[in-house]
């Protein structure tokens, strides 16, 4: 059946457009890969007529954090749990790692944009950066890069030093491990990892020869290739992902599918929360339910607590819509002030970097056409029937690769402390020849820049890309409401590079890249920087700091790690929104549990830390109601 079908399609479509490719891939998965379709285990949304009037716990947002909470809180059969998610169920195509990005701008994406800036994202239309966020069960874990990184031990010790008891590294490590099902052999003996949890961690299944050259070039510079989630962070590594059998393992797959048959857990999809309901009792403010839209406006009560897990953009937004936030701003929006909380929406931090940096290489020896084709990856080359066939028949092939990050490194610029393991820059390595145009497209860079910058990257060129980003930015941005209408997207101002130190660190990372391409391993490939320049920066010498500062301000890219907009901290910190048990200061029966509570950003990708926060938060809720 399968072969007959592909043969026929082959006749019709020798070179596939992305749309046709995805249709064929989807069709063949439905027919041939019941493991991906996973019909039996997919979460069913509760029909509205079966919704209860009241639940013990109401969770807002079924993303990275919310999915974990729904599972853990419903472990207790005597407690009822309602999970409200604005989006719909997961789709089959997002399971394929190489398809990262296909849900951008779709109905499963909140599709945010930052306010126009004169300091960053200058190559984007209207100087606005694009910020995708998952609007789907599993939230941003369904659209993210799947990279499994925990951050640096010192990040958590510093959270604890700010007065957050129980958040030091030693205390959070058990919660990272609790979720984890580490399947990579080399992690089996490590005291930092564990098998048997819900969240499967694997290495990406497919590797190109170029990846080995990139990762091992670090060794010549004195860096180890090792587990960057282990003893020491500084070093190089192949990418590990939230992957199961090579395919995306979102938190919906990991935590919700196994829990969804529990009678005491109701998951309601396409349920858009507008408001958290608070009553005043004397001077106390007490949360008693939520108001949401599904077909019509509905109110559901929470006997114990409402848990807000709408993410770093929408959790502060929902607090403000409910009258919890900076007094002046709420008044300006005509929202009755329930509780003055000046830190709501403030303290926004993100990992900003410069994208699209491309090195051209010559494969080290004569190769057959097919070997040559696979020395690096190229999305257009991968988007063919051979790749689909490998995925369908053999569960392998380039569709199992990560387009943007085959591996990464945590390195120190001259600004970092040489004596300690606290790198200040992360590099993501892409073994894709068309990484540049691809990432430009993902970031919505204007076409003039793309055609100028990548005019050399043609069919017969092999290349790879490096994306440096800063790990501990000093700049702080904010989220505010545009109006009191819940449907309206918020104002997002990340303030990248507002503190010039951030730009200096990023520019300094180019010095490292220059050293890296001069290693013997890279010389074997004759690796050389793409010599084309961003039009607006071309008056600077390409090897100067000025050029790279200009580049960073134009081809600005985040890896989408906004955090800290409802930060955790003690009551005497006026900008702390939640305490160290994640309860909102000054409002009873309400917690925030998601990426927004980080006191400050951690030194690495933020998904695993968010899952850890939810694991720990779930335990705290259970303890507090004992
Ligand atoms: C494109 C992209 C790539 C990334 N790559 C990586 C990576 O490779 N590795 C990594 O570690 N991290 C990565 N991240 C970051 C990581 O995915 C996030 O930090 C993490 O998912 C945040 O989890 P969260 O629970 O705070 O929010 P989310 O996962 O975004 O969940 C919030 C949920 O709340 C729902 N919601 C919001 N408002 C409402 C409402 N009013 N009513 C009902 N529901 C609502 C949303 O639909 C969503 O499901 C990436 C993020 C993006 C966007
Ligand atoms: C971690 O780094 C320290 C200091 O450089 C070193 O002594 C130690 O051996 C490293 N541990 C591992 C597991 O690499
Ligand atoms: C099938 O997968 C195995 C590894 O999983 C690989 O060694 C083999 O080359 C693949 N075969 C084909 C035809 O792709
Ligand atoms: C990628 O492959 C396609 C199809 O073979 C080709 O047209 C394109 O030029 C290639 N791009 C790169 C950067 O190799
Ligand atoms: C890019 O192409 C130009 C000519 O268009 C050439 O001068 C330059 O050397 C090329 N750069 C690289 C890195 O191949
Ligand atoms: C806040 O209180 C803690 C003790 O709970 C104390 O250690 C800290 O110094 C105080 N911070 C400020 C800014 O007052």
Automatic annotation (TrEMBL):
Domain (Glucose-methanol-choline oxidoreductase N-terminal) ranges: 134-157, 311-325
PROSITE patterns: GMC_OXRED_1, GMC_OXRED_2
GO molecular function: flavin adenine dinucleotide binding; oxidoreductase activity, acting on CH-OH group of donors
InterPro entries, per the entry: FAD/NAD-bd_sf (IPR036188), GMC_OxRdtase (IPR012132), GMC_OxRdtase_N (IPR000172), GMC_OxRtase_C (IPR007867)
Cofactors, names only: FAD
Keywords recorded for this protein, A-Z: FAD, Flavoprotein
Signal peptide: none
Domain of life: Eukaryota
UniProt-annotated binding residues for FAD: 273
Family: Belongs to the GMC oxidoreductase family.
Protein name in the entry: Glucose dehydrogenase [acceptor]
